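Dear colleagues,

As part of the handover before I leave the project, I'm documenting each prediction I ran so the next person doesn't have to rerun anything. This entry is a single chain, and its sequence is reproduced below.
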Amino acid sequence: MIKKNKDDTYTVTYSTRNKFGQKIKRSRSGITSNASARKIEADLIIELHGIKKGFEYAGFTFSRFCDEIFFPHYDKNYSDAESFVLRVNKWSKPIFKLKLEAVTPNDISRILVDAKDELVYSSLVKLRSCFSRIFEHARSGGLKLNPCEGVKIPVPRSDSNCKVLTRDGANHLLRMSRELQPIWYKIWAVHLLTGIRSGEGYALCKSDIDLESDNIMINKAWTSKTGIKSTKTGHWRIVPICTMLKPLLIELLVDNKTGNELLFKPHQWTRGSQARVLKEFCTGIGITPIRFHDLRATFITQLFQNGASIAEVQAVVGHTELKTTQRYLRLAGVDVKGVTNKLNFTMPTDIDNVVSLRGRVELFGT
């Protein structure tokens, strides 16, 4: 029912009974036009008929269901609630305003494809799991289908789309970021010149830096789920401080603004958007648009191209499996370096290319 009020606004009311015979009623007021009132009335009818059929969250948009129903429930039952909410809010924007029952497997698939540019395979698996958990909770309230069922994880990034910077590109990134993004410059420089992972850099403390022995101790990492923990492999390692990095480390060590932490933490880094920040900056300055983890790949490939052995690289970057290191060896092109010199062709010289006038006449008639 639509009712026009004295202040020229409209109130919409609709009522029915649920599957147990209990009366349920919905009302919306303060509507400014008759057309809007009719649309709201249609939405209320759909919502209440859904409830009548047994779906108690009928009419809920994805964002409303998460905020009012799922997140409060999750916060009380799981320790990783904060990181869960951040992950869902970051990637679910395409379905924020969709009704729960209107979300399709194609919607979930598109979200995962978009996320593939920033996330590795294991993180994509976690992301799909997050959405699946939400829709499973909605199924307990009568939702017929979980749109995550049957959705495949996009193929993980391979050697062909793993990007690295050339030496000139890396130098350009450092020069331009120091001028335009001084906070990110310090973060990118430390990671580019040490090859440490993002979480390891986030967890670095000033006490981990030993300038006397020119070493950095890597024995912990940070994740949004667990905070500070051990490294990915569970082992500590030593990263030598290169000559180019030492002046910056001295500057960071005397900076009192960060306390005992070595690096400042922009909110994008804390929220997991550091890959997008770097990619957009690289695009803006005209170099290969790499992701944050590709700083590590650039570090490794540059080591190989400058003569470092597999054993040396493994020790510095903390690889536990040889095949992981060999992947970067292929990316650096070291394993095939010089092989094309074995070709037995003979390129014509300038003298060979000179054709006499008589020869031209004989060949071409001119």
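The chain is about 45% helix and 10% strand. The chain has a mean pLDDT of 84.

All the best with the project,
I.
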